[in-house]
Amino acid sequence: MHLKDCSKKSKKYSSEISSSTTKNSLQPTSMHQTAIPKFTYNKTKISAKYQNKLKDAELKFVIGGGHSFNSLENNGILELLQLAIEIGSNYGLLDIHDIFFGRKTIRECLLKKFNAYLKSIREILDEPIKTHCLAATCDLWSDDFVKRSYLDFSVFWVTKDYQLKHSLLRCKYFEEESKTAVNIWNECE
Questions:
Q1: Is 60 exceeded by the pLDDT of residue 17?
Q2: Cα(124)–Cα(130) distance, rounded to whole angstroms?
């Protein structure tokens, strides 16, 4: 459908140009820029060369960063790559080292967003605390891949409309080898 429309417009435009040039061959023509239809590359397959390069890059990401294979299907990494494609389509070929933010910048950005989020959650929790509609729980879990233990602290509250809400307030690396109730209590405090 799109191809037919574009080809009709192109034929109409070229016939208008040819008729105006024959009529006004001796008269100066007005300066105007010709319309160039935007062509988008929309293929489901890429060349074998780039398929292999992409597979190698994905392997370097997984192995070099100690990530799981499942991380390749994570929406966060896919959104990041999609944004990189959009930037490339708008600005052309760029060196990623020139535009990519480093870990310190992203960490600072994360801390600002987390503090803003924590402030908003605390404001939300003021009312449930006053009405005694708040519960808290902690959970100790281990990451099997990196062999680390974490302690998270979650809160649950009920709104005025009797909707149950929840939020993770803290997730901390649990350094203690002994996961006794006393050590967990000390971390929760």
A1: no
A2: 11
Q: Does the model's pTM come out above 0.90?
A: no
Q: How many beta carbons lie within 10 A of that of residue 157, not counting itself?
A: 20
Contact 87, 94 (CB under 8 A): yes
Tokens matching residue 11 = 């034929």
Return the closest-CA partner of residue 68 out of 172, 171, 143. 143
Q: Taking a C-beta distance cutoff of 8 angstroms, is the pair 73, 62 a contact?
A: no
The residue-averaged pLDDT of 158-174 equals 85
Tokens of 113: 């967003």
Burial class from Cβ neighbours inside 10 Å (0-12, 13-18, 19+) for residue 140 reads: middle
Dihedral pair phi/psi, residue 164, rounded to 5°:
-85, 125
Contacts with 118 (C-beta within 8 Å, 6 or more apart), sequence order: 169
CA–CA gap between residue 6 and residue 39 (Å, rounded): 11
